[in-house]
Each structure stands twice: as structure tokens, then as C-alpha cells.
């Protein structure tokens, strides 16, 4: 077995991803398809357009928060990568939440949801966000009354669902809209489908490094992540204290045994969804790659390798409504 393959296998074992201990290092579309390490992102499934339209309006309306000052899009702005470029989400009471707001794009392709990865249903996740006093701080009686007292919403819910607004219909509409938020047709998707010109030589080099270093042991599948939980810090890094992790755990109400476990985030659109990590501690994608290599893989990467991997990560930016996603200001490297 080649030394590079052995080292990848060792890191896979440390990361708890035994099923992916063989990672291809050629990077060709044929080899990637055969290994099933990645899969191209398909367009959004057929959805009820009336539910999607209602969900889109609800998503952007502060009516769903207790104070009526924030909406879902306050943290997940579709014009800014599905996030807002802040290190932490801002709650209904104006206080900073313990976690960074992840992008809402391609959320339906995640097997696990939330930074702790404890939810497997968009309905459950949406309800948690709506009712959590550290987020939207609402309750169902309040929301149903507000929506029913709004003539446009009252009529809209009756037209779409045949009944007044209630818990099930609000969640149904929100989830239908979120399932539509698919950013297909990235250059990496085109590469996976066999377009030999989709990636430049530098980007292809970055893809090979991404696989050979073992990044793909956790960031794999159709969403390049979102399907497992891992400890943040397989290899100790004294320069990055675990105190932030513990504070975040307390905010999330997690048990002490889960202090360092987080959902592996999707890397789709990662170049336009900074700042990075669960606490938004890093603005630079290059720095995030360097930290992950040290903490998760026990590797110190050269500047040229980091540059190549970042070049590859930029190919994961997809399109929504026929336009390539753009980033919030100052969240990525120039």
C-alpha cells in the first residue's frame, strides 16, 4: 500500500470514518464516480409552488419572531450566501447567540442538522429555531393568532392548506421553501459529470490534496459534509482554547460528554459563507483550512498546498435562480 494511502487510512481511523479509509488521489471524474466519495448535486425536487411561495414570504417576515424585529432571513440572507457574515447569530432579544448561523442553502441535503447534529428533520429544526428563547422566542399560540389576524396571511393559508394557519401548516410552508434552496451546477458538479474543462490545473491539484490529506474522510457525499458528527480537535492545538467550545456547549444545552462534538458542515458554497466554524472565529478561508489540517489531521500545510485547496473549495460555489452565489463582505480571502 502506498505511504500516502496508508497515512490517509490512519487519519480516517482517528476521525471515526472507517468506511472511507480509502480515498482516491487521482481526482478524475471516473475515479470519483467509482469511489462514490462525492456525488453531483441535483436540482431541487418538484415541490408545491404555492407552499414554496408562502414559505419564502414567511422566511423573510419578522412576524415569526416574538418581538417582530428579526426574521429567518436576518441570519440566512439568500443574497449573501444564505448567511449574513457575522460570527454569531443575533437572537430576538438582540443578544449574541452561541453559534454562527450556517448557510441555509442545500440544507435539505444534510443528514444531520444544527451545529450539534442532533436533528434529522427540517420540521424539527425549524420548530426549535422558532420557539427557542435564544433565537426567535415565539410560541405557536402567538404565531397562529398573528397570522390569522393578518388578512393577507389568513387568506393565503386557507388557499394553500384549506384551513387557518397553525403549527403544521407554518412548518410545512417553511420546509417546502427550504427544500427549494438548492445551488446546483457548481464547477465541481460539472467535473463530477465528466466535464474535463470544469477545473483548472490548480483546482484539480487542490482536489487531489483535499483527498490525499484526508479531508474527504469527513467532507464527502453529495453535500461534502452534513452527515456525521466529529470531535473538533482530533489533534490538540494549544493555540485554540477549548473554552469557546465549552461556552457554545452550554449555550446549546448539550451534555458535557458532547463538549467537542459538532456536525461536520457541508463545504458547498464554503467560499461565500464565512466566517467559519461553529463560533465564527475565523474570517479567512485559508486560515480555516490551515486550522482544520492541524486540529483534525495533525498536518501543517505549506502555503502552496493551502492555496491549492482553497482554489478547489472555490469550485464548490453553486448557482441559485440562475446566478452564482456571492459572499458577504470581508468573509473570504480576496
Automatic annotation (TrEMBL):
Species, as recorded: Rhodopseudomonas rhenobacensis
Q: What is the lineage of its organism?
A: Bacteria, Pseudomonadati, Pseudomonadota, Alphaproteobacteria, Hyphomicrobiales
User: Which InterPro entries does this entry report, sorted A to Z?
Assistant: Cyt_c-like_dom (IPR009056), Cyt_c-like_dom_sf (IPR036909), Cytochrome_c_Peroxidase/MauG (IPR051395), Di-haem_cyt_c_peroxidsae (IPR004852), MauG/Cytc_peroxidase (IPR026259)
- State the superkingdom: Bacteria
Query: Which cofactors must be present for this protein to function?
Result: heme
Domain named Cytochrome c is located at 50-151, 201-317
Cellular component GO terms held in the UniProt record:
periplasmic space
Q: Can you say what this protein is called?
A: Cytochrome c peroxidase
Q: What is its EC number?
A: 1.11.1.5
Q: Which UniProt keywords apply?
A: Heme, Iron, Metal-binding, Oxidoreductase, Periplasm, Peroxidase, Signal
Q: Oxidoreductase among the record's keywords?
A: yes
Textual note on the cofactor: Binds 2 heme groups.
Q: Name one GO molecular function term.
A: metal ion binding
Q: What class of enzyme is it?
A: oxidoreductase
Q: What is its main location?
A: periplasm
Any idea where this protein resides? Answer: Periplasm
| PTM entry text | Binds 2 heme groups per subunit.
Amino acid at each position: 500500500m502506498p505511504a500516502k494511502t496508508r497515512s490517509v487510512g490512519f487519519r480516517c481511523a482517528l476521525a471515526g470514518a472507517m468506511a472511507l479509509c480509502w480515498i482516491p488521489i487521482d481526482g478524475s471524474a471516473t475515479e470519483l464516480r467509482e469511489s462514490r466519495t462525492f456525488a453531483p448535486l441535483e436540482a431541487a425536487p418538484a415541490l408545491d409552488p404555492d407552499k414554496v411561495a408562502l414559505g419564502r414570504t414567511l422566511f423573510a417576515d419578522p412576524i415569526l419572531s416574538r418581538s417582530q424585529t428579526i426574521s429567518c432571513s436576518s441570519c440566512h440572507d439568500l443574497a449573501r450566501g444564505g448567511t449574513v457574515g457575522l460570527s454569531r447569530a443575533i437572537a430576538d432579544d438582540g443578544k449574541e447567540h452561541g453559534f454562527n448561523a450556517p448557510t441555509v442553502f442545500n440544507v435539505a441535503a444534510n443528514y444531520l442538522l444544527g451545529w450539534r447534529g442532533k436533528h434529522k428533520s427540517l420540521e424539527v429544526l425549524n420548530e426549535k429555531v422558532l420557539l427557542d428563547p435564544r433565537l426567535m422566542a415565539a410560541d405557536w399560540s402567538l404565531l397562529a393568532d398573528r397570522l390569522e389576524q393578518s388578512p393577507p396571511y389568513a387568506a393565503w393559508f386557507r388557499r394553500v392548506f384549506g384551513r387557518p394557519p397553525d403549527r403544521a401548516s407554518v412548518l410545512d410552508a417553511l420546509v417546502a421553501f427550504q427544500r427549494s434552496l438548492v445551488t446546483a451546477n457548481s464547477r465541481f458538479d460539472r467535473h463530477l459529470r465528466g466535464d474535463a474543462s470544469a477545473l483548472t490545473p490548480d483546482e484539480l491539484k487542490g482536489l487531489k490534496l483535499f483527498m490525499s490529506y484526508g479531508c474527504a474522510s469527513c467532507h464527502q457525499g453529495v453535500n461534502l459534509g452534513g452527515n456525521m458528527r466529529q470531535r473538533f480537535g482530533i489533534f490538540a492545538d494549544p493555540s485554540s482554547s477549548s473554552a469557546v467550545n465549552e461556552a457554545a456547549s452550554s449555550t446549546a444545552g448539550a451534555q458535557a460528554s458532547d463538549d467537542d462534538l459538532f456536525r461536520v458542515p457541508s463545504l458547498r458554497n464554503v467560499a461565500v459563507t464565512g466566517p467559519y466554524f461553529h463560533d465564527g472565529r475565523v474570517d479567512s478561508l485559508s486560515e480555516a483550512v490551515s486550522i482544520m489540517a492541524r486540529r483534525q489531521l495533525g498536518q501543517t500545510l505549506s502555503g502552496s498546498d493551502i492555496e491549492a485547496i482553497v482554489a478547489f473549495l472555490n469550485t464548490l460555489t453553486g448557482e441559485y435562480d440562475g446566478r452564482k452565489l456571492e459572499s458577504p463582505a470581508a468573509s473570504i480571502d480576496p
